[in-house]
Amino acid sequence: MPLSHRPAPLHDLALLALRVGLGVVMVAHGWQKWTGGGIDGTAQGFEGNGIPLATVAATFAIAVELVGGVAIIVGALTPLFAVGFAATMVGAMVFVHGGSGFYAATGGYELVLLLGIVALVVAAAGPGRFSVDHLLGRKRSRSRDAVAA
Q1: Does some domain include residue 4?
Q2: Which pLDDT tens digit goes with each residue over 78-98?
Q3: Whole-prediction pTM value?
Q4: 74 belongs to a structural domain
Q5: Burial class (CB in 10 A: 0-12, 13-18, 19+), 88
Q6: Within a domain: 3
Q7: In total, how many domains does the chain have?
Q8: How far apart are CA 18 and CA 119, in angstroms?
């Protein structure tokens, strides 16, 4: 049975599980950067990897991973933060892991590739019904219905 023909609650539970898993990983990565030197320490590490505008990139990465990770978990501004996280994974692949082969065990891009793809899937599929985005969307549509009546 194709996924598109699955019952809606199962589809929404799968999206919830995917969001929570991705969000937890995002928060863990952001927390590691924040507690491991903050923006300045992360920027120094980014400079060492040849990442341009290292302070801007560090600020972006930490914000997307910490704030965005929590937002992804609850399903708020889901596509925005998912695309932002995918962008950070592209940067990690290009500047940090790309030259180390495929496997994560050798410092390769295996994990960042998977995380980036998962983030893009979450952005494309949306958060599902068990999300803040869905609740806010329903409130807006109810408001429009009330105004139209």
Answers
A1: no
A2: 999 999 999 999 999 999 999
A3: 0.85
A4: yes
A5: buried
A6: no
A7: 1
A8: 9
